[in-house]
Sequence to fold (206 residues):
Amino acid sequence: MTEKSKDPAEMPAEPEAAAAAEGGEVEALSRLEAELAELRERHLRVLAELDNVHKRQARELEEVRRRAVGDFARELLEVADNLRRAIESVPRDELERNELLLNLVTGVEMTERQLLEVFRRYDIAKIEPKPGEPFSHELHHAMYEVESAEHRPGAIAEVMQVGYRMGDRLLRPARVGIAKLPAPVEAKPEEPAVSGEPGQRIDTRA
Fold:
């Protein structure tokens, strides 16, 4: 008895089914890879945002610290000024004759150096303009104008008080006097010449 031949249409399409299954796996794998790439990108964005937040917080904390130090240092500027005034108020010749006064001034100078060293550690520096230097609106405060033939108009002519800054932050501007042109000297009117011999009366009725 011979087997009945099978219809090709009824035979299972194994190659086509395998190809379809493989295609589905490739599609699923591609979809997973895309999702993984998206998750990786999101993760990197979150890390970048966290880094920006940390940097911003660090900058804000540093600014708060600098403001606190600056406010405290501003209160000490008058102390530094008074120490310098005390040192400069003593005549040098008096120090040579008075040992007690010399020791006192030496102690004040040491105190001033210690205070300036503390300023240096916190990046606080003096603003000490010299006469003849250009005036800066960022660093100087003009207190008055003074006639000067030595310095050009608008330049610093005198320094009343040194200033201070902490890094790029101004604590106190230097107080200065600004040079201006001297007022022109008015020429005296010439007296009319008088002619005639000595002792001769001049007729002024003409």
